[in-house]
Amino acid sequence: MSDLTWKDRLQNQIDPDSLQEIDLFENQITLKKQGKLDDKVFGETRLRRGAYGQRYDNGQRHNGAESVTIPFPSDGLTKGTETVWDAPGMQRIKIPYGGMNPEQLDLLAQVAEEYSDDILHITTRQDIQLHFVHLEDTPDLMRRLGSVGITTREACGNSVRNITGCPLAGVCRTEAFDVTPYADAMTWFLLGHDDVQDFGRKFKIAFSGCAHEACGLVTIHDLGFIARLENEQRVFDIFVGGGLGTVPHQAQLLAQSVPEDEILPVTQAVCRVFARLGEKKNRNRARLKFLVAKLGIDEFKKLVQEERTILPHDDRWTDYLKDVPEQVDQPLRAPTFLNGAPLPEGFSDWYTTNVYHQRQAGYTTVTINLPLGDISSPQAYALADIARKYVGESIRTTVEQNLVLRWVSEKDLPDLYRELDAVHLAAPGAGTVTDITSCPGTDTCKLGIAASRGLSGELRDRLIAQNGSLHPAVSDLKIKVSGCFNSCGQHHISDIGFFGNSRRRNNRAVPHFQVVLGGKWEDNGGSYGLAVGAVPSKRIPDVFNAITDRYVNEKEAEETFQNWIGRLGKKEIRTMLKPYMDVPVYEESPELYSDWGDPREYTIGDIGIGECAGEVVSLFAIEVARAEGEAFDALIELDEANYVTAEAKAYNAMVLAARALIRNEFIDIGDDPARIVTEFKTRFYDTKLFFDKYAKGKFGRYLLQRHDSPPAAEQVTEAVAHRLIEEANLFIEAAHACDARIAQARQNTLKPIL
Q: Which of 159, 348, 407, 512 is the most exposed place for a label (fewest CB within 10 A)?
C-alpha cells in the first residue's frame, strides 16, 4: 500500500472548498488537543462536522479501545489530569433525502469497517451514523466520504440538518410530482450558506409529494413542503414551526400555492428571520417552533414576506429548474412481470409487506427491513453489488430506518429475494407492527434514560414469534420508542409510543417507559399522542398485549386504533394500565429493577432498606402521586374539550409536584400556589438542584413561566392546553429525577442537602 496519506491520495477527488474545511477541522483538533482552542468553540465546530459525543457505561471494548464513563470528546478532553483521546464517539453522515448509489454504499461500508464497529445505523432523518469512531480518525473518514460526494458538514450543531424526503419520490402512485430535485437543490443551496450560520438551535426541513401519506412527515418539521398540482403547474404548500422534542408543536401553514421558483428564496427569508429573532441564550427555547408560537403565525408570515422583498437576487434560486424535467431515475432493466415460475420459500410473506408497485408499470420498490435500523458492513457490501445488478443507482434510506431499492423489474423479484435472503436482508414485515422505530437510547446516547433498543428488540422478537397469528388490525399499527422525552424515536406520532423515564421504589431506581397513545402517522404526522402512564420497562410487552388484545375485541368495523383510543377515553385507559404500573419491592420482583439487554441492576445506588420488614415510602412519593393524578385529570378534561379546565389542572399538577419536593424537605408549605412557586424557585430552581445534566432547568421554567403569565380564558385553545399538559408531565418527571439526585447525594454525604 502507498505511503501517501488519505489527504494526499484524495487531493484531486474532493471539492476544493470541502477539502479546505476538512483540513481546517483537522487543524482545530490539533489545537484543541494542545489546549489552544476554547471548549465551546470546538464543541460547536465538531458538531457542525457531525461528530457527536457518546455514552459508555457497559464495560465493553470496541476497536481495541477501553470503554470509559465520560463523553467523547469531553469538552475539555480531560478526566482529572489524564487526557482522554481514546473514548470514541458517533459520526453522523448526511444522506440528503436518503439518496445514494452503490459506490457510496460501498464506501460507507468501508469506513464503518475500518473506523467504527462494522455497523451502519440508519436514522429517522435518513442519515447514516457510525458509532465508536475516534475523533482523530474523523478527518480521513470525511475525506474518503467526500471523494464519493458525501458530506458530514452541518449534520449536527446549530445548523440546517439533513433534508428529508419521501423515499418513493418519483415512483409513488399518489404523489403530485417528484420532489427529489427540489430537496436536492435546497440541500446544496443551504449547505454552508451565510444566512444559516447564526441559529440558536438546529433547523429541520422535509419534502413530501402528497399531503395524506407519512413519508415526509412535514408537519413535525421547522419547515416543510407539500407538493401539489394547481392548474397543471407545480406548487408547494409551505408549513413552518413544527417539531417533536420534549413538547411537540404542529407545523402551521406559512404560504399556500408557492410556485417552484420561489421555494429557495422563501426558505432563505425564513432562515434570516429565525437567525435574527430566534432565541440564542436559552437553548431550550431556541427552536423555530417557539419563535412562531411567540410571534403568532400571522406576524411571522408578515416578517417573512418583508424579508423576502429585500433579499438580493441569487441565480441559484432558479438555475436548477432547467434540469428538473431530466432528473428522473433511469431503470437498469426493462419492465417485465412475474411469469408464474416457482417461487422461493418465504417469498410470499416478503412480497406482501416489502414490495411496493410503482406507478411505472412493471417496476417495484423493495424495502430492506433493518431491525433497529442496523446493517453490517458485509451486508452493505453485498447490497451494493445487488443494487448494481438489479437497479443501478437507485438506493434510498427511509425515515423508518430502512433501505429501499427502486426500479426493480417485477420479473427479477424472486432472484432478488434469493440474493437478499443469502445475506440475511430479506426479513418480511416492512411497514408493519414488527418494523419498530427506535432511537439509540442507553446503548450509546448520553441522554438515554431507558433501553429503547432493548425494548424494541424484545417487542419485535415477540411479535415475530407469533408468526401469522397477529390480527390484521394489530399488524398495521406503528410502534415507536424513545430512550428519553426528546422524541428522537418519534413516539408522539405512533399508534403506540414509549419514552424512557425512571421511578424510585424502596430507594431503588426502576427503569420505566411512559406509554403514549393516540398519535397519527398518516397525513405527514397528522396529530400527536399524549402520555397516559409510566410502566416498568420489563412490563411493557404485557401492556402492549393488553392494549392490542382489547382493541381487537372491542373495535368497531373499520375503526382505526386512534379513533378507538379516543372512544375508550383516558380514564378507562388508565384503569387498564393501573395493574402494570405498581412496582413490588425488590425482593419480590428483582427483574423489574434491570432494563432490557442489561443484566445489571438499574440503580442510582442502594440508599437503604426500611426497618421491621416494612417498606419506607418517602413523603415525596406520596405527595407527587397527587401531581400525577392532577395531570391525568387534565388529560380527561382535554378529551372532553374543556380546554380552560385542562390547562388549569396542568398548571396545578406542576404546583403539586413542586410542593412534593418542598414537603420532602420537611417544610410545612401549605397550599398557596404563589408561596409554593416562590419556595420552589428559591430552593430548587435558583440553586439548580432541579437542573439535570442535560435539560439544564428548562422543565422548571415551565412552571415559572405559566405562573408568571397565566393565559386569559379566551387564549386557551386545544393546542395551548395540550402543550401545557406535555410540559406538566415533563415537570413531574424532572421532579422525580430531582428527588432521586437529592436522595443519592444524601447517601453519599450522609448530611442534609438543604
A: 348
CB 90 within 8 A of CB 82: no
The DSSP 8-state label assigned to residue 598 in this structure reads B
Residue 509 lies in a domain: yes
- Helix H or strand E segment including 517: strand 508-517
Residue 11 in 3-state DSSP?
A: coil
696-737: per-residue pLDDT in tens?
778 899 999 999 999 999 999 999 999 999 999 999 988 988
Residue type, 717: T
Q: What is the pTM of this model?
A: 0.83
Residue 163 inside a domain? The answer is no
Q: Are 546 and 576 in contact (CB under 8 A)?
A: yes
**Whose grid coordinates read 453522523?**
92
d(C-alpha 512, C-alpha 590), whole Å: 14
Three-class SS state of 567: helix
Q: Is the pLDDT of residue 753 over 60?
A: no
Same domain, 53 and 200: no
- Kindly state the cell numbers that stand for 649: 389542572
Give the whole-angstrom CA distance, residue 317 versus residue 281: 32
Looking at the structure, tell me whether residues 461 and 480 fall in a common domain: yes
Nearest to 155 by CA among 178, 130, 185, 134: 130
341 within domain boundaries: no
Domain for residue 705, yes or no? yes
The angle at the Cα of 394, spanning 391 to 399, to the nearest 5 degrees, equals 130
Q: Are residues 247 and 369 in the same domain?
A: no
pLDDT per residue as tens digits for the range 628-656: 878 888 988 898 899 999 999 999 999 99
H or E segment at 62? Answer: strand 61-62
What is the chain's percent helix, strand, coil content, to nearest 5? 45, 15, 40
Whether the pLDDT of residue 63 is over 60: the answer is no
What are 727-737's pLDDT values in tens digits?
A: 999 999 889 88
Q: Which of 146, 181, 215 is the last residue of a domain?
A: 146
How far is the C-alpha of 636 from the C-alpha of 379, rounded, in Å? 49
Question: Which of 732, 702, 100 minimizes the C-alpha distance to 387?
Answer: 100
Q: Cα separation of 69 and 262, whole Å?
A: 49
Query: How far, in whole angstroms, is CA 548 from its chain's centroid?
Result: 24
Q: What are the grid coordinates assigned to 47, written together?
A: 458538531
**51 and 89 in a common domain:** yes
Q: Is 16 exposed, middle or buried (0-12, 13-18, 19+ CB in 10 A)?
A: exposed
pLDDT at 619: 67
- Of 66-80, 150-164, 351-365, 613-627, the range with the lowest mean pLDDT is 66-80
Q: Are 218 and 208 in contact (CB under 8 A)?
A: yes
Domain that holds residue 118: 6-146
Q: How far apart, in whole angstroms, are the C-alpha atoms of residue 481 and residue 352?
A: 25
> Residue 406 sits in a domain of what CATH number?
3.30.70.3340
What is d(CA 626, CA 660) in angstroms, rounded to the nearest whole number?
A: 9
Name the residue with cell 438515554: 448
Task: Give me the number of domains the chain comprises.
Answer: 5
584/474 same-domain check: yes
Residue 119 backbone dihedrals phi, psi, to 5 degrees: -125, 130
Q: Calculate the average pLDDT of the chain.
A: 87
How far apart (Å, rounded) are the C-alpha atoms in residues 497 and 562? Answer: 12
Both 474 and 602 in one domain: the answer is yes
Are residue 740 and residue 672 in the same domain, yes or no? yes
Residue 581 sits in the same domain as residue 649 = no
In what helix (H) or strand (E) does residue 651 lie, and over which residues does it extend? helix 643-663
Number of H helices, E strands in the chain: 24, 24
Question: Given 326, 356, 391, which residue is the final one in a domain?
Answer: 326
Q: Determine the Cα–Cα distance for residues 656 and 211; give it in Å rounded to an integer.
A: 42
Tell me if 25 sits within 8 A of 42, measured CB to CB.
no
